[in-house]
Amino acid sequence: MPMNTPKQQADKVFRARRVITPTGEIAASVVVAAGRIIDIAPYDAVPDAGDVVEVPDDAALLPGLVDSHVHVNEPGRTEWEGFATATRAAAAGGVTTLIDMPLNSIPATVDVAALRAKRDVAAAQCSIDVGFWGGAVGSNLADMGELVRAGVFGFKAFLLPSGVDEFCHLDSAQLEDAVRAVAELDALLIVHAEDPHVIEAAPEPNGPGYADFLASRPAEAEIRAIANLIELAERYAARVHVLHLSAASALPMLAAARARGVRITAESCPHYLTLCAEEIPDGATEFKCCPPIRDRANQRELWNGLRDKIIDCIVSDHSPSTVALKRAGDGDFGKAWGGIAGLQVGLPAVWTAAPDWVDLTDMARWMATAPADLVGLETKGRIAIGADADLCVFAPDEEFVVDAARLRHRNPISAYHGRTLRGVVRSTWLRGEQITGDRPRGRLLQK
């Protein structure tokens, strides 16, 4: 019998023996009409559709990933990364939706005019769907409501210098004002959580020694900043999100806060879950990021934080730059730009490093559903009836060696260069259409 699709006529069916749904892995036929999933039928149902995509038995059908932490940098620093290159790289890595950070573009996305400028330049370039964060800086705290009404997904804040002059950090009084403002707006504040006083008291990160750089960004900086965020979120009943959690020692306080109802969430990133300090050579500034990549024992505890649902999601913090900036100082960690460019390889990197208890349902939850839920995109990041048909065909057992020169990032430098990773993205689909790079079909999203 043909599969039953009573709501509207199907135009495409994806048949796979491994379909990763929010409730687990099943064999199924995912039925699509006008870019939306209208049915999830048995695998052996007879497709009643014009186009049938047969997923090979050695691959799984995952929801398209949602990456809520990407620095695209256009306009102003397009030579670091632009919307064309970033979204092509994202698609090659199985990502179908990204949310762009309000820095390091010029102007920074701290007012409606800057948001409009960013949307204008992105409009015809995106291979995937793109939304935007706003910035919370001292000068715009009274005007955050305008950005909310213009459609940003929330506000990014730094507690210490951001690395670029046009995006100012918040002092303690301004941070409290920002938390109060997002509570009143029912918005989300996402925070680079390192305490400036701890960093100022730490040794300067000069020279090629990775151990010296690591000492310059101690875990205590994250712990103290997160403790302050918890206190403010609790006081104002505000939604606060901890960006790029690196220090696993902060997990107990996050767990305790959430147990008593504090509205605080947290993310970590592929580089913290796959790379470790013991393996980073001196002078290898492609590994520099802030907060830093810590030791293997810390990494194990981050994985436990995911298992225990204290860390909600895994996102890239794709923070690219030119090769010259990344190599500035000829291996001096104090002078090189800090940031990992990993948008295209996040899924295989995490899958390669994952402990034995992790399955593809976990991966889809951490890298697709949870980031979509964080920003309120109910039709993204899940294979479910009513969701956008954003899909990724992923071969979990296939291996490849990362070659930075062949990645679709704008600049050929990668902390993963030369690594053998397990898991290959075979194809990526946006609203039921395969992303091939020939014609940008991504949409600009609003909250």
From TrEMBL:
<keyword id="KW-0378">Hydrolase</keyword>
<keyword id="KW-0479">Metal-binding</keyword>
<dbReference type="InterPro" id="IPR032466">
    <property type="entry name" value="Metal_Hydrolase"/>
</dbReference>
<dbReference type="InterPro" id="IPR050138">
    <property type="entry name" value="DHOase/Allantoinase_Hydrolase"/>
</dbReference>
<dbReference type="GO" id="GO:0006145">
    <property type="term" value="P:purine nucleobase catabolic process"/>
</dbReference>
<dbReference type="GO" id="GO:0004038">
    <property type="term" value="F:allantoinase activity"/>
</dbReference>
<keyword id="KW-0862">Zinc</keyword>
<dbReference type="GO" id="GO:0008270">
    <property type="term" value="F:zinc ion binding"/>
</dbReference>
<comment type="subunit">
    <text>Homotetramer.</text>
</comment>
<dbReference type="GO" id="GO:0000256">
    <property type="term" value="P:allantoin catabolic process"/>
</dbReference>
<dbReference type="InterPro" id="IPR002195">
    <property type="entry name" value="Dihydroorotase_CS"/>
</dbReference>
<dbReference type="InterPro" id="IPR017593">
    <property type="entry name" value="Allantoinase"/>
</dbReference>
<dbReference type="GO" id="GO:0005737">
    <property type="term" value="C:cytoplasm"/>
</dbReference>
<comment type="similarity">
    <text>Belongs to the metallo-dependent hydrolases superfamily. Allantoinase family.</text>
</comment>
<dbReference type="InterPro" id="IPR011059">
    <property type="entry name" value="Metal-dep_hydrolase_composite"/>
</dbReference>
<feature type="domain" description="Amidohydrolase-related">
    <location>
        <begin position="61"/>
        <end position="433"/>
    </location>
</feature>
<dbReference type="GO" id="GO:0050897">
    <property type="term" value="F:cobalt ion binding"/>
</dbReference>
<protein>
    <recommendedName>
        <fullName>allantoinase</fullName>
        <ecNumber>3.5.2.5</ecNumber>
    </recommendedName>
</protein>
<comment type="similarity">
    <text>Belongs to the metallo-dependent hydrolases superfamily. DHOase family. Class I DHOase subfamily.</text>
</comment>
<comment type="function">
    <text>Catalyzes the reversible cyclization of carbamoyl aspartate to dihydroorotate.</text>
</comment>
<dbReference type="Pfam" id="PF01979">
    <property type="entry name" value="Amidohydro_1"/>
</dbReference>
<comment type="pathway">
    <text>Nitrogen metabolism; (S)-allantoin degradation; allantoate from (S)-allantoin: step 1/1.</text>
</comment>
<keyword id="KW-0659">Purine metabolism</keyword>
<dbReference type="InterPro" id="IPR006680">
    <property type="entry name" value="Amidohydro-rel"/>
</dbReference>
